[in-house]
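P.,

For your records, the input lines for the assembly:
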Amino acid sequence: MRAPEHAAGHEDAPPVRARGLVKRYKEVLAVDHIDLNVGMGDVYGFLGPNGAGKTTTLRMALGLITPTEGTVELFGRDPLREGARALEGVAGFVEGPRFYPYLSARKNLELLSALDGRGARARIDEVLEIVELAHRAAHRVGGYSHGMRQRLGIAAALLRRPRLLILDEPATGLDPAGMRDMRMLIRRLASDGITVLLSSHQLPEVQELCDRVAIVDSGRVVYEGALADLRRRGGAGYQLHTTDDARALQIAREQSGVEHAMSAEHCLVFQAEERDVGALSLSLAEAGVGILSLTPALATLEDLFFRLTEDKGDGEEPLLAPEDGLDARVDRLVGAS
Amino acid sequence: MSSVAASPAVTTPREERLRRPATLSVYRWELRKLVSQKRTYLGLGLAVIMPLIFVLSQHLRHDHNNRENIFATQITQSGLATPLLMLLYQSFFLLPLIAALVAGDIVAAEDNNGTLKTILTRSVDRGQVFAAKTIAALTYATIAVFLSAIVATAAGVASWGFKHVTTFSGTVVSAPKGLLLVFAANTCYLIPLLTVACIGVLLSTVTRNSAAAVVGTVGITLVLAIVSQIPGLDVLQPYVLTNQYSNWHGLLRTPTDWAPIAHSAWVCALYAAPALVAAYLIFLRRDVAGG
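Structure tokens returned:
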């Protein structure tokens, strides 16, 4: 499936651009000045704990709810001002896809294609094939399993030949095989040029699929940028395997700039800046210790996620201070790692 | 989706029409949704079964000296008295209830099921969805009224023949003209009934709860009926919605009295227009977070 070239919208505008989004429900601040920048072709992970404001943000993006403050544009168009026109080339679902349980899958798709126009009806068989529901298309959706409904949700989105796919927890409730298949499908759609905004709790899924992420906590973005950047900045650790690990550990501990050196299984680990790693390797060579391998050990997304979204709760200074800017917060994170 | 990689690619037709869907298309699907739901048939079933029960009860009854109204006195003399009598009996509660069943449900049910957000993220504007839903609710009420009238006419004529009928003013009209008057009377009755449906749509939009909207709609009509009976509030009577239910009586007088019909038209407009405008504005601006 190729992303359509003719879809409406401003061709050079980013798929999603949110500025200062705020959503307040009486005393509850659900979304607190969120900025998002999803670029063309991104597979963009939108991460956060329950209640962080992810779904509310996606609802605002799709024009389902009105922001208290701020704006969101899809391909340069504001869904609040331009209505359905702003959703041209955009598809997806929030809080799980919902269908008419008393209609069959095919009838549901026929209904939605009637609301889409643009020849969507002709694509029904194709999208049912893609999500492998063709053989159950005549059955009522009321009898579908959760996984089948998720797949039908993807089919309903594909009817619109989207350039931007917004998926809120698409793998939630799926069994491992279903989750794997969902990841394969998303990867395939992304490889076909569709921009994907993926809200998820599944950190391995995001780590595997996404190139850029926004991490939200308590309604605020605590990190937005390339996933590789976050991992690089968040985990400046190294693993060292030498011909004499005991001697290497002694040298590492004496080397200035090398911290937290300790033995691990068949290697030693330490933290250091890049220039100090160079100096350590020279010291090892001078001491006649051969380096068998020296590899940077990047923090996993899960490590970083918890560091960004959880206070330590043990009296230590929190990793995040709301008044800090993004860079300052990431710098503090790096310093704390 | 285990064979995603092997599944066929969706092709893009070069000459695809770029027209967005029309409100008529959305309306058609609202009707199809109604046709597919069992609860739709509950109201229509009531509209069908009540005239049948009435006719059956008249067959079982030996004493036909009912002087309650002019059509009751003719019940066994002309089959055309049956639909007029049924309209008289059903117009105050049953038909408004049937109209409320769908009007009160049409927005709220979708909000609760989460399907409202499904359709509002497609290529139709909120205004189109609202218009289609409102017209579908009005269509349903119209169908219920005429279905009931057709069944009552058929059952009445089958039982007591297609004969002349006497109107409120004592004029005897021929059977074909009587049939025309039955149709016209039901058409006039639609004016207040569709107003009730508009109130139902408003409550459905505001409450986001089908039961509350249906009960609320019927409750409003009952309260208005009670208000119109309170001594000292006579001045309000001409403007009470439920008093417009009998607007069709003017058609069955000689000469035809158009005044109650014209009066009910503008009085009902005073109820229906604000209800619809309010519902429309609320629907356009509301946060859709249900389901």
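Two observations worth noting. The interface with chain A takes residues 1-5, 7-13, 16-21, 25-26, 28-29, 32-33, 36-38, 113-115, 117-126, 285, 287-289, 291 of chain B (CB under 8 Å). The radius of gyration of chain B is 23 Å.

Regards
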